[in-house]
Specification:
Helix content is 37%, strand content 18%. The chain has 273 residues and is of the alpha/beta class. The chain has a seven-stranded parallel beta sheet with strand order 2-1-3-4-5-9-12, with helices on both faces. The chain has a three-stranded mixed beta sheet with strand order 6-7-11. It has a two-stranded antiparallel sheet with strand order 8-10.
Length: 273
Amino acid sequence: MPSQRRFAVAGGTGRLGRHVVELLKADGHDVVSMSRSSGVDVISGQGLEEALAGVECIIDAATGPSPDENAATAFFTAEAQNLQKFGERAGVRLIVLVSIIGIDRSNVGGYYAAKRAHERLTLSGPIPARVLRAAQFHEFVPVLMEWGRRGDVVYVPKMRTQLVAARTVARALVDMAAEPDSKEAPGSSTPFPEIAGPREENLADCAKLFAARRGDQVRIEEVSDPADPHHVLYETGGLLPGPGAVLAGPTFEEWLESEFSVTGRPLTAAAPA
């Protein structure tokens, strides 16, 4: 059992952050889950000073409330600056940030531009930082399905991806954070370590599996949207992991069966933290 340390998790109630909190506690650490519901606002800074007292490492699993580039950039800019500022005052030694595979493979705007800014600001602050880039989560599928639902038809982007379970990514973040002097993520030698699921998946096929397992009588339509700045990345494999990536966790189908077995029904979309 590792010696107890104090961690703070930004977005600690979100679809990724809740797993990070749970795994840190299971490893015997003291954990501060930071979210608005716990009285900590990473954007305004309210409650941050108190939350970070005695914290050695921050794991940043927060997600913006909007996919819009301007709104997301404003969110991540404020968050990164506040975590660095208040963290430095508190004596935090490391920030570990989760990001997205492929965001540097295109100069297009949108949410990925906001995440590039998030990475830059986190890495340029006074506290040393590490970035783990992850593939889209299995939990991402029902979110996109809800966004694309039009009556009895669900439209999803044409997308090649290597979906990964949020809990698998959480485990990698915890392992990275537990070794603050390590220069590389476990199992990787790339400047931006990557983690993805065990095999390439087609988003539309996963959506069909999800709908069938939930008993949802909808038709899944795969669409290509040239108005989406990311559609080329989606369709050409730009979101797939590189050769040095860690491949781990269940396939989408395995994850779906596990979720259904545990809860009696697969997960529905959850609000970002």
